[in-house]
Amino acid sequence: MNTNTQFLTWVFFDNTDELLNLSTEKVTKLEPQVAQLLKLFIYSNGELLTRDAIVNHIWPNIVVEHNSLYQLLTKLRRLLSDNPKQPRIIKTIPKKGYQFIADTQPYTPQKTNETSNKKKIVTQLSWWKLAVLPVVIACGSAIAFYSQNTTKTPQPKYKMSDLSYDLGLEYNVDAHKTKDLIAYIKNFNDLVFSNKQGVILNTIKFPSRIHHPSWHSELDLISFWQYYQDKCILHVYKSSGQAIHRSKGQKCTHTRASSWQSSSQLTINLANGAHFKPFNYDLHTGNSLELPVILHDGDTFQHSIIAWQGKSYYLITSADHKSRLITLDGTVHMQWEHPITMLTYDPKRQTIISNNSDKHHTLIATSRDGQQQIIANAVQGIFTDLSVDLTGDIYTAVETWQVNIRDKDELPIFSTTSIEYLPVSNLLGETAFMSKRSGVCEVYLYSEDQVKQLSYNQGYEYVNHIEWQPQLNLLLTNRDKNILLYDRQGKIMQFLPDQISTITQLGWHTNEQVWVYDTQTLSTYNLTGQRLNNFTLHVDALLYNNQSAQWLVFDDYTLYTVNDLSHLTNRDNWVPINTFSKQQYNQHRNFKLRDNTLYWLSSWSAKDYIWQLSLEEASVSLIKSDELIWHYDIAKDGSLNIAKMEAIEGDIKKLSLIDPQ
User: Whole-structure pTM over 0.70, yes or no?
Assistant: First the structure.
């Protein structure tokens, strides 16, 4: 029987999963798993609940990582304003479990108040995540640096405090160097201005996703990006909300924070495809000019920052995954032995603060003479943004999340706090997928209600593709430029194809042959790595239909069929079957074929869309749109499974510098 339960100043309505705060008369609609957890605690009658008991109740018959319960518990404690260090409601019993310690009683309000209380504002929980930028997980620990004329600095000490503690996602924080201002993004579309104590001063809402606010070092001017359709728009505002500048839309896939050179000149960082490029942008003219950063073979540009003496420096990642900070003349000012994915300049101590090599759980400061010091460790979650003002205080975002691969009934097949993606099922009901839980991307197999790890790797190698063999005995994947084959026990074969650049697509041509495409050449190989065919080909995307023995070619918003491999280089042999809209075609990826139906994923205004096209009828239909759909899968019965980031929490933290004595 449903009951309404009161404890302290809270009332839980378990028939509607609503939580009433009697002191504020505010009603909050709980997420299903949060409601389940609270219900379990309330009905436990104060008994100790072990971790296993809670996990089995909330996630029955599902593999769940250790951190999933912690995140759910953290969310519930925040809703209840319950400090885990001085608990009034939920007490942690070290190494044993958790106990509900608040007294409970049935809630029987006066009739005149019950209706009004239930009609109070319902606070919707925000639980979506950022895209946009690729999450790079790095392994390794050694760091080497090049430097000049820097004296030894004392070990800094910091005190961490929360500037935001609301449910939902706060991220992309930037602190003004000289003024009492910070700015950050909340729940994708809101630009929030606050002082450096966390008091909100102003909020500006936008109709589509915004990213990467960046303050001018002295003026009340802030730049940030807005994703609109297939373009990115640069805005400049004042903290009052006054719009100063809006650029023309530039076609792009990703952005990073800009750096101010002057009151009218910025270095902007854009990617239209796989790699970023730096540009000088003029606010007066709206013109941009690509900067001539010196890159070696295999190098990729990552980011630009303003550092020593107010000069511009450029972060480069090499083919062997090392990072270096250079100026336009090619001089190397700092080097790391692992990938750097976020960094900022500390003007007080004249150091670079960046991620370590441990999945963004640690921040380090590095001086130009190679000294390295640990700044802070994230107890739970990872650091995702960095900013430092002139006093040496650091402002950062710490994020946690859960990733679910969900079935047609929205139930999770697999739940984790790691990065799960690229699920691909076969007609036997088995699902292979990738995970970055171990620091690098590994291959897992979900079969007969069990999850099995197939690969074990070290280093910085990443996986971008996976496909079942037509006869379902093998899995085909890549690891950087290498091709790997797995059976149900693990790796059985690996070879390096003779491709010019990074693999963009691959697949099975027959049960004994695979094809590999790198935007310039299409090659086929046997399973020992011997190249059988090689063609020069420049198209937007490519797919082979094993069922019809035809190639599907995507080029210039049109889908073609080609009957033979040798005919791919002659466009006269291409037969058009469908023309796509810009929304259907923009950033199209993750192509899948099932029963002569084509599926794919696209993005529009930084939102994700899953489409399907019957190759027999040549008709396109939208089957799913949502925020942060990482990947999707077509299940054995033809239903849609989705791997998406959920239950995201992000908070703005302040690391206040305590000067050493």
Answer: yes
